[in-house]
């Protein structure tokens, strides 16, 4: 499974859980984009370099999820620095290499097999 496929699966799972009111999440993007205007283009700054892929809030706890390819994707120095900063503030940083890690963290996978089984089909299949 590629990193982009893993991220798509993570986002699908989190959207499912958000629809049930169990979590809130948003996709975070770093860098900047150019937006065309009527007379000129505008550069919009997004999140800082190194920001995790996804932010999740569950029961008042903030999580940042960084997805990496299971076959050895590595954090950049900026991502390592981001992890350090947010952990110092009490947030939880998860380096995700398998969808099962997210299922285990955000569902009652040991007790609610129907919820988990949905993610063995479709685009989340690894």
Protein architecture, described:
The protein is of the alpha+beta class. It has one domain (3-124): Trna Endonuclease, Chain: A, domain 1 (3-Layer(aba) Sandwich). Helices cover 33% and strands 25% of the residues. It is built from four helices and six strands. The strands form two sheets. The protein has a four-stranded mixed sheet, sandwiched between helices. The chain has a two-stranded antiparallel ribbon with strand order 2-3. A hairpin with a 4-residue loop joins strand 2 (32-36) and strand 3. Helix 1 packs parallel to helix 3 (99-106). It is globular and about 55 Å long. The model is unreliable at 120-126 (pLDDT under 50).
Radius of gyration: 16 Å
CATH class division: Alpha Beta
Count up the domains.
1
Number of strands: 6
Mean pLDDT: 88
Helix content: 25-40%
Following the backbone from N to C, one meets helices and strands in this order, namely HEEEEEHEHH
Low-confidence spans: pLDDT under 50, at least 5 residues?
120-126
What is the CA-CA span between the terminal residues?
Answer: 6 Å
Count of helical regions: 4
Biggest sheet layout: 4 strands, mixed
Please identify, by name, the CATH architecture: 3-Layer(aba) Sandwich
Instruction: Label the overall shape.
Output: globular
Alpha-beta classification: alpha+beta
Hey, roughly how much beta strand do the residues contain? 15-25%
CATH topology: Trna Endonuclease, Chain: A, domain 1
**Could you give the order of strands across the largest sheet?**
1-4-5-6
Oligomeric state of shown chains: single chain
